[in-house]
Design a protein that fits this description.
Length: 266
């Protein structure tokens, strides 16, 4: 953690957290907590994704990463091993499994992922619902090539890869879709970029669409973007898990915000 993240985490620790068993004013929210956030039953595809993750962690294969986002705080150059990329960049297991439960619960038909990396996070979107159409964008061609191999191993046939700049590719994808049901914002941890991508996606957000924002306290700019997103009129329900944030859009429900005590490293 950098100094800003340390201060943000201390503030997060001081916030009142929702606990399992706490009552809410909405049966919809109660179901979300019971069947998504606090659900502990294993899903069949968890083991498959973990096997792929563990194999990649052992890989010393070198990749030259062309980073089109806000850069890395872990590496000083662009040469990285696959194992290092998985360790520092892949979606943590617990976070990925929560995303899988969100997909299983909401059954989104059209999902956009900004930032494929090695594709481990993509599999958490793709495997819980084979009928979902996943569009994943990656700026680095070498990473996309490795991700494609992982998709083939998992036999995930519902993922469409796009290689290039988010700003150029995202509007093209959106123009070809009637609506989007879920969007994962990762790979460009910058205030202006995050707000811009959020605003570009909003017009195509279906009722009850779920937007997931990674690294919401990665920097002061990201924290500012997160606060602006929470305040947006389209956001009905929001969840702060420090490592990432989730908002549900366009619902006829009283605006609600929850902070969860989330051990994302597990």
């Amino acid at each position: 953690m950098n100094w800003f993240q340390i201060k943000a985490y201390l503030r997060y620790l001081g916030k009142k957290k929702h606990k399992q068993g706490d009552r809410t004013s909405s049966s919809f929210i109660e179901e979300l907590f019971n069947h998504v956030f606090y659900e502990e039953l294993p899903y069949y595809h968890y083991d498959l994704i973990n096997d792929i993750r563990n194999d990649l962690l052992q890989s010393s294969k070198q990749i030259i990463v062309s980073d089109l986002g806000a850069g890395s705080k872990k590496f000083n150059d662009n040469r990285r091993s696959v194992g290092e990329l998985v360790k520092y960049n892949a979606s943590p297991r617990k976070q990925g499994e929560l995303i899988a439960r969100l997909v299983s619960y909401f059954k989104p038909e059209r999902i956009i992922e900004l930032g494929t990396s090695l594709g481990i996070g993509s599999l958490y979107f793709a495997l819980p619902n084979s009928k979902a159409q996943i569009h994943t964008i990656e700026g680095c061609e070498k990473l996309a090539e490795q991700a494609k191999i992982n998709f083939q191993i998992a036999q995930a046939k519902n993922i469409k890869q796009h290689i290039g700049n988010f700003r150029e590719i995202l509007p093209v994808i959106l123009n070809n879709l009637d609506a989007v049901n879920m969007v994962y914002f990762d790979g460009h941890h910058d205030y202006r970029a995050t707000i811009d991508y959020f605003q570009v996606c909003l017009p195509k957000a279906a009722p009850g669409a779920v937007f997931i924002f990674d690294d919401i306290y990665w920097s002061e700019g990201m924290a500012k973007a997160w606060q602006e997103i929470l305040a947006h009129a389209s956001v009905a329900v929001s969840f702060d898990l420090f490592r990432f944030g989730i908002v549900i859009l366009n619902m006829e429900i009283e605006k609600q915000h929850y902070v969860l005590n989330w051990s994302w490293r597990e």
